[in-house]
Design goal:
With 208 residues, this protein is α/β, with parallel strands linked by helices. The protein is 28% helix and 31% strand. It has 6 helices and 13 strands.
């Protein structure tokens, strides 16, 4: 079993690899050897930064087409982290561009009234509420805490796709799951014991 971590220049690849090593999960970092993605047992798509720039890199490099084949046709499990989660949606307000379209959801910016003391980006530790129980949420408490850094958030069209939610001014989707597609807005690679458990759960899911 091996997980392919996609390195396209935007993401905490080193921190993710450290986590996978810590829990003794085999992995490879892929940026040029696109064929290896198709032969992996699981895929991690990280991301920090601008949606439009990230999509351009994925499309220009050919990674987007490889991911679509691996995820949609081959049904390889994928974990999208932060921007990586957002990239799997249909569309983002950030740059007004289409995403990979793996899940029926759109990305929108936090908007608060001028009198609100909530800042953008949402940054720091926040509680996460588990909405449904499966292998991906196993051994996570009802109120787990994860680390966030984001100005945009995901709005799922289908409530059944919402795996976890978080409140920041209002409730938003902090994790989604449908079939072989799994995304989290928070950074499990920076979330200590909760992040370790989530990576363990994902790796067990990839073995199925």
């Amino acid at each position: 079993m091996s997980i392919a971590v996609i390195d396209y220049g935007l993401g905490n690849v080193g921190s993710i690899c450290n986590m996978l090593r810590y829990i003794s999960v085999p992995y490879s970092v892929e940026s040029n050897n696109l064929e290896a993605i198709s032969y992996s047992d699981g895929i991690i798509l990280p991301g920090v930064g601008n949606f439009k720039m990230a999509m351009k890199i994925l499309e220009d490099s050919g990674i987007s087409n490889v991911l679509k084949d691996a995820v949609i046709n081959q049904q390889i499990p994928i974990l999208g982290i932060c921007l990586g989660m957002q990239l799997m949606c249909n569309h983002s307000e950030e740059g007004d561009v289409k995403g990979l379209g793996f899940i029926d959801a759109n990305v929108t910016k936090f908007k608060f009234d001028t009198y609100s003391n909530l800042k953008i980006p949402h940054m720091g530790w926040s509680d996460v509420i588990v909405k449904k129980n499966n292998i991906l949420t196993e051994d996570l408490l009802d109120l787990s805490r994860f680390y966030f850094v984001h100005s945009y958030y995901v709005k799922c069209k289908n409530d059944e796709d919402i795996l976890m939610s978080t409140n920041y001014g209002h409730e938003f989707t902090s994790s989604f799951h449908r079939d072989n597609i799994f995304g989290c807005q928070f950074h499990p690679e920076k979330s200590h014991k909760y992040g370790i458990q989530l990576f363990k759960n994902f790796s067990e899911w990839c073995k199925k």
